[in-house]
């Protein structure tokens, strides 16, 4: 510790200030521990309980045996979750970024205020309500709507609607964080609004937008309630994205179902599936960080 | 010949007048310096000349500003077109997070110039005019942020020159730079005035005396006096100008 900054700071201080320094330093460490302890707890419990089921077969085969899932793996859930995320993102990423651009551009106008209010309301809609709405819009076979049945398309788009306001708000904030001097520099050279947005604002905001998309995806990956009425679950792989063959598996739903089964083995597998879900989250996080590396440099978030 | 001409110009932020009854001419191939204490409206005036204040909510103007006898506010002249003809360099260097080459090429690219040949030609020419070429010619593809502050500001000047403006507005272009970089920028201004009409806002009176042909003194939104720089600094006709340049206030 000789010569470390903390040591340097305390040197020559009165005993009282030295004590206060230690106390606050200790408290900071303690709160940091409290902040990360849920993650440590999840990893610890899931690893402890689920590790025995974790192997290549587990992530590469479909469930089999009786009760279903006691043999085989969770490939249906992995594939299904990824399909749902791709569908949800292809709706919410363009819509959310576009809406965020609008809010940034039109910032203080009354319409923008209204859009912002509606967007906040959407953020607060309980996911089970989304599920029912999704059912009436996409799945039900009677009345108005798309009549897609319980399918990946119905579930994915419902999840997409949940993601839109998240991506919107984060995009707007990320654009606001781009320094005004860059925006003015572009306008001063005779750039149009659109050129300034495309060439200066969006590239500078990419890191923040990436984080927003990631937040949205993480939210969606853990959802079960919206899927109950729109996709439910499939123990196999889907042969289409809509219709009676269109439902997909889903990791969160699979965990939920396995935990409800009176089988010790399935409980273990549920924990192992949780570990896989954590792994997917981590991989997505790293992937998005790599993709937005250039922009993170712009935002000064990395050296 | 006057490139730009301002007459009876008023500017308001919401209801508050920021500029009152300004009239002056900006001749070609001359440097006009705007001096005055903080908050006197000189930057507002500068930014009114290429309509950069349009982005400020509640900003409005009255009176006339013309560029080559065309009113820039009430004629159909689009601000985007205006800003290509009236370039601007800001107080703090603000290069884009792009390579040195792409920074200078930006203004051309947005005008739709695609040809690699034309682009590299104009980039070189602009960097030479901004007295930066020799320092960066071997690393045109490195980031603009690998340059020093003074080099970044000259890059911003090169970027403004690349679109071949007629008028160049400089908003305290050297205030964030060290004395050596400042001297280089001032030298550069002397070179550039053989081709452009230049308006420079500065807080540094020695700088105004060194680089400008004419000087206008602003105070609380009004233009107190304008004239040959040598006369303003040796024999001002208004007492307030004398008080300011002799350092009695401001």
Q: What is the CA-CA span between the terminal residues of chain A?
A: 26 Å
CATH architecture field of chain A: Orthogonal Bundle
Number of helices of chain B: 10
Question: What is the overall silhouette of chain A?
Answer: globular
Alpha-beta classification of chain A: mainly alpha
Secondary-structure element order of chain B, as H and E?
EEEHEEHEHHHHEHEHEEHH
**Overall radius of gyration of chain B:** 18 Å
Provide the spatial order of strands within the biggest beta sheet of chain A: 1-2
Q: How many strands in all of chain A?
A: 2
Strand content of chain B: 25-35%
CATH C-level label of chain A: Mainly Alpha
Helical segment count of chain A: 13
* Termini separation of chain B: 33 Å
Number of distinct beta strands of chain B? 10
Helix-and-strand structural type of chain B: alpha/beta
Q: How does this model look, in words?
A:
By secondary structure, chain A is mostly helical. Chain A has a single domain (56-299), classed as MetI-like fold. Helix content of chain A is 71%, strand content 1%. Chain A is built from 13 helices and 2 strands, in the order H-H-H-E-E-H-H-H-H-H-H-H-H-H-H. Chain A has helices at residues 5-10, 15-50, 56-60, 75-105, 110-123, 127-139, 152-176, 180-188, 193-221, 225-228, 251-260, 264-291, 293-298, and strands spanning 63-64, 71-72. Chain A has a two-stranded antiparallel ribbon. Chain A is globular. Chain A starts with a helix and ends in a 5-residue tail after the last helix. With 250 residues, chain B is of the alpha/beta class. Chain B is built from 10 helices and 10 strands. Chain B has helices spanning 42-48, 79-85, 100-109, 116-129, 133-136, 149-162, 179-192, 205-211, 229-234, 239-245, and strands at 2-13, 16-27, 31-35, 59-67, 70-71, 86-89, 167-171, 197-201, 214-219, 222-228. In chain B, the strands form 2 sheets. A 6-stranded mixed sheet of chain B has the order 6-7-8-3-9-10, with helices on both faces. A 4-stranded antiparallel sheet of chain B has the order 2-1-4-5, covered by helices on one side. In chain B, helix 3 packs across helix 4, helix 3 runs parallel beside helix 6 and helix 6 (149-162) runs parallel beside helix 7 (179-192). The two termini of chain B are 33 Å apart. The mean pLDDT of chain B is 93. Classes of the chains: A mainly alpha (303), B alpha/beta (250). The A-B interface holds A 108, 179, 181-182, 184-192, 195, 199-200, 203-204, 297-298 and B 50, 52, 55, 57, 80-84, 87-88, 90, 92, 94-97, 106-107, 110-111, 156, 159-160, 163.
